[in-house]
Amino acid sequence: MRKISPLFLVLIFGACSQVRQIVAVKDLRIKFLNVEIAGISLDGIDLNLNFRAHNPNRVNAVLTGFAIDIFANNFKLGKAQMNRRLKIPPQKSKVFTIPLHLRWKDLSSSISSAIRKKNVTFRAVGYALIDTPLGKLKFKVADYTRSIK
Predict the structure, then answer these.
(1) How do residues 81-133 score in pLDDT, each as one tens digit?
(2) d(CA 31, CA 53)
(3) Residue 25 β-bridge partners
(4) For residues 67 and 126, is the Cβ–Cβ distance under 8 A?
(5) Which of 41, 45, 64, 126 is deepest in the core (most CB within 10 A)?
(6) Percentage of the chain modeled with pLDDT above 70
(7) Can you spell out the DSSP letters for 80-106?
């Protein structure tokens, strides 16, 4: 009968822990909550986009980056980014805010398009970066489209 090395057991259990953390990435849910006006200037408008990240797993999930591009009638209005670490404990939620600056000159193209077409289609496309023992993983968190007439 062969003996199992303690080092082999440590490696196997360590690999299981890494797999659980990767599953946490897959199940992490990020939901848009609301938008707040942070300021208005001659250059544009500053918004705060509020999100909730929920981790339904039994291991921590660490969000290390988040970005969303905002479009109106296929004109890019801006990009909201978060480049800090956010640890979401097991079976908990965390609310986080990321800023978005919209320049008036970028808004003018989408406004004139909306007037011509008599509707506006908003689109948000976003990605999150999650830290895992195997490195950072990037996954899509948003591809949302809504039309208003």
Answers:
(1) 998 999 999 999 999 999 999 888 887 777 777 777 777 788 888 888 888 76
(2) 6
(3) none
(4) yes
(5) 126
(6) 81
(7) EEE-S-EEE-TTEEEEEEEEEEEEHHH
